């Protein structure tokens, strides 16, 4: 390549500046490492800002009986016991300290009457444990971490997209990226890399996820040879907006139900009574999502194909204070006043429990020098994630990843960069401009979104999944010939043509894993295998690259020690 | 199907022009939807910054019919349809391409603000009434529309001497945090140039979060500056304190 590119060297490079990435950055800096953070969007605008519910932590500020063991139990049950028990234990034990730390760094949560951090109820949690501020806890977290990181002196490379991990033999050496602004290339050299790039929702048509959620980090790890796991478990949040068309999928926080909102069908029935009479609206997300989907499919849906979520029975001032974001979102985008009228809601692709396979304590992936935390990593949530457990996940494992990555960098010699890998990465990015014709990447994206929405959605079956595998292959061929117009100066079409490759890699992982798991468990529902299978209940799917092939195998779910098994002795 | 005409700025730092695009209208459509339509069907390299599409990330700031707005929250049906709808980049910041501007100056200003610093030995207990004020400021999504509209930056280019409304909001959030132990008043007066604000309140008008920037953040900070640096009684008391003290 004859163009010049910048090179930056750090002990630890973090890809992604959401809650997990920034918490990792703060910790790695604490350990004395030189830290660089690369992010696709502007600093402080990662998808974490959308998190509305709260941070799940057993602080017992409202329900004095709460403790880490109950939180651990709730998480394991929610995950249908496919979780990595050690991650669930560390998460429950360490979340309260991580919340207190945020407060010490300036975060201002809503308060209880006695001056402590307020906690609210949420689906699947036995006790009220979600620490929150209104319905903007995600914003509070990212701003606090951003302020902390900036004051400690992190180097942030904003609006920069990593397209390839560079390796020195078997270990991580760095990353190749481009600046979205000017389109120039940049190379990072690093001893440790932490992937904190979030999820994959943009591959589906109806999603609550932001523009940047194209599965980049998972695809990068996969291409570099790291293992991914649990990819079949994609969470469809039960309540996304359904109308008007432009806002389809945008999140309606579970906090609405946490604050007393109820679900009704077209006939005015509180239909959750049929599906989970004990927990009703605060059942786990997979159950509620399937319930709404079923009500709609059986003809009891609302005008625009959803269910009614109603909180108008609560005092208007209370709703406006606790759920201001929701109030404005519906007022301005759908002409609905939630203090007086019900909201129309329906399932939306929201989160992926699967991701990069990591060690429970160090967040290390299967390649030396590679780490992962947050939504991009897998194991904590098993087959289904509880609301509130993601924000605590970011803090607990962001910190562990930062600590381990810094320690790894300390005891590692500097890697060498391979010019051939850099050349190849540059050629991949320049190539689309050299093609004379081809399709618009936007067209391909639209069709991919439709395909996954229809074939790899809430309810799956063998025929649909097999068709999806073929479709993904075709999309891959089309992307290889996609047309890019214009120059390299801030060219979203060019960026999309590359992002599509990540989406396709991840889509293939999800589809193959879903095909393999011949049972229904947690968020993964097979119409052709509607029940639990005891064998599958003891295994996780693992996906890894072997040359050009994607290879799937199963590994046993790690077994819990006896003193933790006791906690479930009374479960029927 | 009904159509609207959008006149969108296409260009870069060296200049550009408005280009008209016809966009079919769907119910409840917002300007960002129209921009996506243009990207997807008419101009694949139209540079638009956006992320959440729900008014929470502050990425999609632009000027619609001359007014600073978030394009994801600007309903097409709230705009006059009988003439082209102009969509331009934020005027105060240098254009990178089309609707994307260089907002890095804001991040530079931010770095200089001393961080939250709890008083030593503080007890981590706060009541809702004590945090209400600071919580209002922490709603800020850093959309920079207030920075864009403030004439001190927009028309008078005082970037070297004036930090802008967003950062007075940030400082107010720190100063009014019940457990913070620092005073940032000197910086507010000297480095951040609060004196340049003449209470025009355009910032408060454009804030998508409805933060009462001028009344709740800037004016109280101005009052603190006056108390500390311009109150004759305080000045005299200091003089006496210095000469009488050890």
What's the quick description here?
The complex is a heterodimer of chains A (572) and B (246). With 572 residues, chain A is α/β, with parallel strands linked by helices.
Tell me what you see in this structure:
The complex is a heterodimer of chains A (572) and B (246). Chain A is of the alpha/beta class. Chain A has 16 helices and 20 strands. Chain A has helices at residues 19-30, 68-78, 85-104, 137-152, 216-223, 255-258, 272-275, 285-300, 316-322, 324-334, 389-410, 419-434, 441-455, 462-480, 492-516, 562-565, and strands at residues 6-15, 35-38, 55-56, 119-120, 130-131, 155-157, 160-168, 171-179, 185-195, 228-229, 234-241, 262-264, 307-310, 343-352, 355-356, 370-372, 459-460, 525-526, 539-546, 549-556. In chain A, a hairpin with a 2-residue loop joins β19 (539-546) and β20 (549-556). Chain B has 246 residues and is of the alpha+beta class. The chains are: A alpha/beta (572), B alpha+beta (246). Chains A and B meet through α3, α4, α10, α13 and α15 of A and α1, α2 and α3 of B.
Please describe the structure with a list of short key phrases separated by commas or semicolons.
A: alpha/beta; Flavocytochrome C3, Chain A, domain 1; 7-stranded mixed sheet; 4-stranded antiparallel sheet; 20 strands; 37% helix; B: 246 residues; alpha+beta; two-stranded antiparallel ribbon
Going across the biggest sheet of chain B, name each strand in turn: 2-1-5-3-4
Which fold name fills CATH's third level, the topology of the largest domain in chain B? Fumarate Reductase Iron-sulfur Protein, Chain B, domain 2
> What's the CATH superfamily of the domain at 419-556 in chain A, by name?
Fumarate reductase/succinate dehydrogenase flavoprotein-like, C-terminal domain
* Radius of gyration of CA atoms of chain A, rounded to a whole number: 23 Å
Low-confidence stretches of chain B: none
- CATH architectural arrangement of the domain at 419-556 in chain A: Up-down Bundle
Largest sheet of chain A: 7 strands, mixed
Indicate the radius of gyration of chain B in whole angstroms: 22 Å
Query: How would you sum up the global shape of chain A?
Result: globular
CA-based shape of chain B: elongated
The residue ranges of chain A in which pLDDT falls below 50 over 5 or more consecutive positions are none
């Amino acid at each position: 390549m004859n163009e010049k590119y910048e090179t930056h060297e750090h002990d630890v490079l973090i890809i992604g500046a959401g809650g997990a990435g920034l918490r990792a950055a703060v910790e790695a800096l604490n350990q004395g490492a030189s830290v660089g953070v690369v992010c696709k969007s502007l600093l402080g605008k990662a998808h974490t800002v959308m998190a509305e519910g709260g941070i799940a932590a057993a602080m017992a500020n409202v329900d004095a009986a709460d403790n880490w063991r109950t939180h651990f139990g709730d998480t394991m049950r929610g995950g249908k016991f496919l979780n990595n028990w050690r991650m669930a234990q560390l998460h429950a034990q360490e979340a309260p300290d991580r919340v207190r730390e945020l407060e010490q760094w300036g975060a201002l949560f809503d308060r209880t009457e006695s001056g402590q951090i307020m906690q609210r109820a949420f689906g699947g949690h036995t006790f009220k444990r979600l620490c929150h501020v209104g319905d903007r806890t995600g914003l509070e977290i990212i701003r606090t971490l951003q302020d902390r990181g900036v004051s400690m002196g992190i180097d942030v490379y904003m609006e920069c997209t990593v397209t390839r991990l560079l390796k020195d033999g078997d270990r991580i050496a760095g990353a190749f990226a481009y600046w979205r602004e000017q389109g120039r290339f940049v190379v990072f050299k690093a001893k440790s890399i932490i992937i904190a790039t979030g999820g994959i929702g943009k591959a589906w048509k109806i999603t609550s996820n932001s523009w940047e959620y194209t599965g980049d980090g998972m695809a990068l790890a996969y291409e570099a040879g790291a293992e991914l796991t649990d990819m079949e478990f994609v969470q469809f949040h039960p309540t996304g907006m359904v109308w008007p068309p432009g806002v389809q999928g945008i999140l309606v926080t579970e906090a609405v139900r946490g604050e007393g909102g109820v679900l009704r069908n077209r006939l005015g029935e509180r239909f959750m009574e049929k599906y989970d009479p004990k927990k009703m609206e605060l059942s786990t997300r997979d159950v509620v999502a399937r319930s709404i989907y079923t009500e709609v499919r059986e003809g009891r849906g609302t005008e625009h194909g959803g269910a009614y979520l109603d909180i108008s029975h609560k005092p208007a001032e209370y709703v406006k204070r606790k759920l201001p974001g929701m109030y404005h979102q519906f007022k301005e985008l759908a002409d609905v006043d939630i203090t007086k009228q019900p909201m129309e809601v329906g399932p939306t692709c929201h989160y992926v429990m699967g991701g990069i396979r990591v060690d429970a304590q160090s967040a290390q992936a299967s390649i030396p020098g590679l780490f992962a935390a947050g939504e991009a990593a897998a194991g904590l949530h098993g087959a289904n994630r509880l609301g509130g457990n993601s924000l605590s996940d970011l803090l607990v494992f962001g910190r562990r990843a930062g600590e381990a990555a810094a320690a790894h960098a300390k005891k590692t010699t500097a890697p060498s960069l391979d010019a051939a890998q850099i050349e190849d990465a540059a050629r991949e990015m320049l190539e689309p401009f050299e093609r004379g014709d081809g399709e618009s990447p936007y067209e391909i994206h639209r069709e991919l979104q439709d395909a996954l929405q229809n074939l790899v959605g809430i309810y799956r079956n063998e025929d649909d999944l097999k068709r999806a595998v073929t479709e993904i292959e075709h999309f891959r061929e089309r992307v290889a010939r996609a047309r890019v117009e214009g120059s390299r100066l801030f060219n979203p079409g060019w960026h999309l043509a590359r992002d599509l490759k990540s989406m396709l890699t991840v889509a293939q992982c999800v589809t193959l894993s879903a095909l393999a798991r011949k049972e229904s468990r947690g968020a993964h529902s097979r119409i052709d295998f509607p029940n639990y299978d005891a064998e599958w209940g003891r295994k996780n799917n693992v996906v890894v690259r072997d040359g050009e092939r994607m290879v799937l195998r199963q590994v046993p779910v790690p077994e819990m020690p006896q003193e933790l098994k006791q906690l479930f002795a009374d479960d029927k | 199907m009904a159509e609207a005409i959008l006149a969108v700025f296409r260009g870069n730092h060296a200049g550009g022009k408005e280009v008209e695009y016809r966009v079919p209208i769907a119910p409840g459509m917002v300007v960002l939807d129209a921009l996506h339509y243009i990207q997807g069907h008419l101009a694949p390299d139209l540079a638009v910054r956006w992320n959440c599409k729900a008014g929470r990330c502050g990425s999609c700031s632009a000027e619609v019919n001359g007014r600073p707005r978030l394009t994801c929250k600007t309903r097409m049906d709230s705009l006059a349809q009988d003439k082209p709808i102009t969509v331009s980049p934020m005027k105060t910041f240098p254009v990178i391409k089309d609707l994307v501007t260089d907002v890095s100056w804001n991040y530079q200003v931010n770095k200089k603000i001393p961080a939250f610093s709890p008083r030593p030995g503080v007890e981590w207990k706060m009541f809702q009434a004590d945090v209400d004020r600071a919580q209002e400021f922490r709603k800020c999504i850093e959309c920079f529309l207030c920075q864009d509209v403030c004439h001190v930056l927009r028309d008078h280019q005082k970037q070297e001497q004036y930090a802008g409304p967003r950062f007075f909001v940030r400082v107010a959030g720190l100063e009014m945090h019940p457990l913070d132990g620092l005073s940032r008043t000197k910086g507010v007066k000297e480095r951040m140039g609060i004196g340049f604000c003449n209470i025009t309140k355009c910032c408060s008008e454009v804030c998508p979060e409805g933060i009462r920037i001028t009344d709740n953040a800037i004016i109280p900070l101005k009052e603190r500056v006056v108390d500390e640096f311009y109150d004759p009684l305080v000045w005299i008391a200091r003089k006496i304190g210095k000469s009488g003290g050890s």
